[in-house]
């Protein structure tokens, strides 16, 4: 809403303060600044507030607002006087106002940094979290305007308002003066206030999803009068699933006397139903959707599933139609799945909802599935159905104009019916939030993701997302840092999902292989080695093995303390008459089920070839009793060589020496088995992620598929162990970091009116800024001619290096632009002559002289702000080979000590740092510290949008930063900080 011409002319209407929010009950509301056009809305709102609430606001009976009050409460300068309103359906349901005051409580202007704040919430909307959301937004507005503290006077009997302030998490002081409670809140965000905010966000967004997945009544809008069509199909599937609530068919073309269709009441509008409707499935042409949405909103529908097409996937006109759809639905407090959605399924016995176009959904199970593509959704549902897998919930969000994968991560985090979350994503609207939510969810249950459109360089039609500049390999690394199991195909997603949903997590990488085919066992063994597992020599039961032989061998493998998982390989066995027998697979499945149920809880996977019915029999649940999780050794043991485990058969080569595991007390020593919770997270039955195991054993038609799924489970279990003891930023860094000084320098370098494109720092400026974070860059002196080069060397001291800094030669020693270990003047002059003769004139080469650093390994440290993913810290070895192979590791900022340790060990060339081929190991501790310092710099100062240290020579003791470049820019917008708000598309 824009202000009228009467609005204060010197402060434009701050439209960036407008926001849609999700309230505690899952409904949406809009927060916006109050303008002069709101006088009638304000009066109407005030008339609906009880006398008691008015008394709490004004400390006296105040039945109505005077004209002077209305003028005061609707005229603001948006700096010293600000008012915000919460609206639903265009009408006010709550207001908040602040007035800047001085130390004596009188009206003031900047630089006064305190303001008096007051709230008023309509009684019918109290208890919905409205005041809490308003406090977040008015606090953010105040900080933007230079206000650091709020003061509030509250009557002692106004317990609800006192609780809003008390629970916000801000640093506060309270006193009792003149019959009222005086509260002072420091508006600087704290860890507690951020935790409170995110906790409220999780509960509100999870509740908004629950309203869509567990409705008490559903209206299908657009049900045809004759069989066929989208609406009629949705209604048929809804009834076919046995929906436990009330169902209605709606079509404005129904005749007035039509009472029923397909056995449910038929109506021409939602308003005619005359009973509450929780969920509406909209299946009408796009040009009729606004009419249907208005009908739903005006009659209290809580949420919409819009299967109608013709939106952003159809171009610019469709995009605007989609934006208007979201605005219209949110104005009524409704959330949307879609448009262009395939639908939703909830298999909970108390709901049995199939509001989708899928006629045969999978049976109830423990897997939650989210997909942005209807076609992929159909394929996944079909694949899960064929393999006997069960779903808890399924969502196909289409253009995901509102509800997204982030919302369902919020829901699944606490959903007791979901053990594994599978997501097919073609775009990520809020990557920083996705990473945060995925990390939290992955700490209690697996999150498996397939990312489509990885290399297309374009956003799928209908999806509005920030553009990312980082390559897909970096996205994958950052997902794995958050505990996400990133796979490449939907087939791999199903493979991993089945094992994770039906089997306990492995305690380590040691794999036993047994079966009746030596060849299939060797294929499995090779696949294990390729995935970084530690397979034991395959046990060949021979082709004469019976199901009882399989049962005995599996029981023995599960009982072996040197085994963490078992892969069973099976081909049809040969009977006494020489004929191949499989018993339909049921006999073997029964034997394997019996052994798995009786043995220790370890994951079992089956690889089979042409055994009819085996996969189906294995997928049949044998029990609904929760299986205990294994007691697993601590993290250090996951990468160690276990006694009794033969890593290679006789005659095979040894494995290359891995980089040492990150050390430190956080990682845990190699020793006795840790408690169950340390191995797998919150598995005590009380928290999210616990729940019954089905007893199903996943079966795979190829060894590589089974092993790949098992390897993902091993890596995920290892991540869970690490997440149980998170890393930290060492406190000793604070003694050597001048954060205020760096902030002042950055402000001076950017100036009062910075170029929005930013600016690169000169070498001396970069050296000065980095020095304030304890990062010393070796000086370089310009050498435009031989005489200046000699003078520079005399100043620095021999030996020196002579380098070109021309862009096409920078950091390219292989092109001959670097001369090292020049011990005296004659060597320097000779090198200068060779350089200019070979590569060009000094003006082109831009040569510099630098003191020699101790010999070591050349590395590269970088940090950059990506508009989609946020701040990313990167590390790799210097040189063309690493660059060509993409051998670079990445972590999100802020990085912890564990992140830094993992970063340098996760590149393929890491052995070079740890004494490869007899070389002396370099000082990785100094390298880890440098990474943490760069991380702190970028995290503390968002104006630092890129840092590149190249090369960083790491010696046996210490390191030397020989080159550095830094770029500053006005701080980019952050979508993961600030008050809660829904994305605006």
Radius of gyration: 33 Å
Overall residue-averaged pLDDT value: 85
Q: What distance separates the N and C termini?
A: 17 Å
> What would you call the shape?
flat
Topology, number of strands:
41
Poorly predicted sequence stretches spanning 5 or more consecutive residues: 1-10, 622-693
Detailed description of the structure:
The chain is α/β, with parallel strands linked by helices. It is about 35% helix and about 20% strand. The chain has 29 helices and 41 strands. The strands form seven sheets. An eight-stranded mixed sheet has the order 1-2-3-4-5-6-8-7, sandwiched between helices. The protein has a seven-stranded mixed sheet with strand order 11-12-10-9-13-14-15, with helices on both faces. Strands 17-16-19-18-20-21-22 form a seven-stranded mixed sheet, with helices on both faces. Strand 39 (about 945-955) and strand 40 (about 960) form a beta hairpin. Helix 14 packs across helix 21 (about 705-725) and helix 15 packs parallel to helix 21. The longest helix has 23 residues, at about 190-215. It is flat. It starts with 18 loop residues before the first strand and ends in a 17-residue tail after the last strand. The relative contact order is 0.06. Residues about 1-10 and about 620-695 have low confidence and may be disordered.
Features:
985 residues; 29 helices; seven-stranded mixed beta sheet; disordered N terminus; alpha/beta; 21% strand
């Amino acid at each position: 809403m824009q202000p009228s011409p009467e609005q204060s002319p010197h402060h434009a209407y701050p439209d960036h303060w407008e926001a849609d929010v999700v309230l505690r009950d899952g409904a949406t509301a809009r927060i916006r600044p109050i303008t002069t056009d709101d006088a009638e809305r304000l009066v109407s709102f005030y008339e609906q507030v009880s006398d008691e609430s008015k008394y709490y606001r004004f400390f006296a009976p105040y039945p109505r607002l005077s004209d002077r009050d209305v003028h005061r409460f609707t005229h603001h300068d948006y700096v010293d006087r600000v008012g915000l309103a919460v609206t639903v359906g265009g009408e006010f349901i709550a207001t908040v106002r602040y007035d800047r005051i001085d130390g004596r409580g009188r009206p003031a202007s900047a630089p006064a940094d305190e303001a008096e704040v007051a709230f008023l919430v309509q009684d019918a909307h109290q208890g919905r979290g409205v005041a809490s959301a308003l406090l977040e937004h008015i606090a953010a507005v105040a900080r933007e305007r230079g206000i650091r503290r709020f003061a509030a006077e509250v009557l002692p009997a106004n317990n609800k308002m006192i609780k809003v302030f008390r629970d916000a998490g801000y640093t506060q002081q309270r006193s009792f003066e003149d019959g009222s409670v005086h509260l002072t809140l420091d508006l600087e965000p704290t860890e507690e206030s951020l935790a409170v905010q995110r906790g409220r966000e999780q509960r509100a967004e999870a509740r908004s999803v629950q309203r869509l997945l567990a409705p008490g009544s559903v209206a299908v809008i657009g049900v045809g009068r004759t069989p066929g069509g989208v609406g009629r199909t949705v209604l048929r599937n809804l009834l076919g699933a046995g929906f436990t609530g009330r169902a209605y068919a709606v079509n404005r073309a129904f005749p007035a006397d039509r009472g029923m269709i397909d056995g449910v009441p038929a109506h021409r509008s939602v308003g005619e139903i005359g009973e509450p409707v929780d969920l509406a499935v909209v299946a009408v042409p796009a040009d009729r959707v606004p009419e249907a949405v208005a009908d739903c909103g005006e009659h209290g529908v809580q949420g919409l599933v819009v299967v109608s097409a013709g939106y952003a996937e159809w171009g610019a006109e469709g995009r605007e139609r989609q934006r208007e759809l979201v605005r219209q639905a949110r104005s009524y407090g409704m959330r949307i799945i879609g448009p262009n959605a395939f639908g939703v399924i909830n298999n909970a016995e108390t709901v049995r909802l199939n509001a989708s176009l899928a006629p045969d959904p999978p049976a109830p199970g423990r897997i939650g599935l989210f997909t942005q593509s209807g076609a992929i959704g159909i394929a996944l549902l079909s694949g899960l159905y064929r393999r006997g897998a069960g779903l808890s919930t399924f969502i196909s969000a289409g253009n995901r104009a509102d509800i997204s994968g982030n919302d369902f991560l919020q829901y699944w985090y606490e959903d007791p019916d979901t053990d594994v979350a599978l997501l097919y994503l073609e775009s990520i609207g809020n990557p920083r939030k996705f990473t945060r939510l995925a990390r939290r969810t992955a700490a209690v249950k697996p999150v498996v993701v397939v990312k489509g459109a990885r290399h297309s360089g374009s956003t799928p039609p209908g999806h509005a997302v920030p553009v990312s500049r980082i390559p897909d390999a970096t996205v994958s690394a950052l997902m794995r840092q958050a505990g996400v199991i990133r796979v490449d195909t939907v087939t791999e997603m199903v493979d991993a999902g089945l094992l994770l949903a039906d089997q306990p997590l492995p305690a380590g990488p040691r794999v036993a292989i047994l079966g009746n085919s030596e060849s299939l066992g060797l294929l499995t063994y090779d696949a294990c080695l390729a995935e970084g597992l530690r397979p034991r020599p395959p046990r060949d039961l021979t082709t004469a093995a019976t199901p009882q032989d399989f049962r005995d061998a599996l029981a023995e493998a599960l009982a072996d303390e040197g085994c963490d998982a078992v892969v069973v390989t099976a081909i049809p066995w040969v009977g006494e008459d020489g004929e191949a027998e499989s018993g339909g697979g049921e006999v073997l499945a029964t034997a394997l089920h019996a052994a798995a149920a009786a043995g220790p809880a370890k994951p079992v996977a089956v690889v089979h070839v042409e055994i009819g019915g085996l996969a189906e029999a294995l997928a049949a649940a044998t029990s609904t009793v929760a299986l205990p999780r294994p007691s697993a050794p601590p993290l250090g043991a996951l990468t160690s060589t276990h006694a009794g485990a033969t890593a290679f058969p006789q005659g095979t080569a040894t494995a290359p020496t891995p980089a040492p595991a990150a050390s430190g007390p956080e990682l845990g020593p190699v020793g006795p088995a840790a408690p169950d919770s340390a191995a797998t997270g919150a598995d005590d039955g009380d928290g999210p992620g616990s729940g019954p195991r089905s007893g199903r054993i996943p079966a795979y038609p190829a060894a590589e598929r089974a092993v790949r799924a098992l390897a993902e489970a091993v890596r995920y279990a290892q991540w869970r162990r690490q997440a149980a003891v998170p890393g930290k930023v060492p406190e000793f860094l604070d003694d050597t970091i001048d954060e205020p000084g760096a902030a002042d320098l950055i402000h001076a370098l950017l100036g009062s009116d910075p170029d929005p494109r930013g600016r690169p720092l000169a070498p001396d400026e970069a050296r000065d800024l980095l020095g304030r974070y304890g990062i010393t860059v070796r000086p370089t002196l310009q050498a435009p001619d031989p005489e200046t080069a000699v003078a520079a060397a005399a100043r620095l001291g021999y030996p020196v290096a002579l380098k070109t800094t021309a862009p096409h030669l920078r950091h390219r020693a292989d092109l001959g632009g670097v001369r090292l270990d020049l011990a005296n003047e004659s060597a320097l002059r000779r090198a200068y002559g060779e350089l200019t003769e070979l590569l060009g004139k000094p003006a082109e080469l831009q040569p510099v002289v630098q003191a020699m650093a101790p010999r070591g390994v050349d590395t590269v440290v970088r940090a950059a702000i990506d508009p989609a993913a946020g701040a990313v810290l990167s590390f790799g070895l210097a040189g063309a080979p690493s660059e060509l192979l993409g051998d670079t590791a990445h972590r999100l900022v802020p990085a912890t000590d564990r992140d830094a340790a993992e970063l340098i060990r996760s590149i393929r060339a890491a052995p070079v740092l740890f004494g490869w081929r007899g070389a002396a190991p370099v000082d990785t501790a100094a390298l880890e510290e440098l990474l943490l310092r760069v991380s702190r710099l970028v995290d503390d100062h968002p104006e630092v949008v890129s840092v590149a240290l190249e090369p960083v020579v790491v010696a046996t003791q210490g390191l030397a930063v020989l080159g550095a470049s830094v770029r500053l820019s006005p701080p980019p917008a952050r979508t993961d900080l600030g008050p809660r708000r829904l994305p605006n598309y």
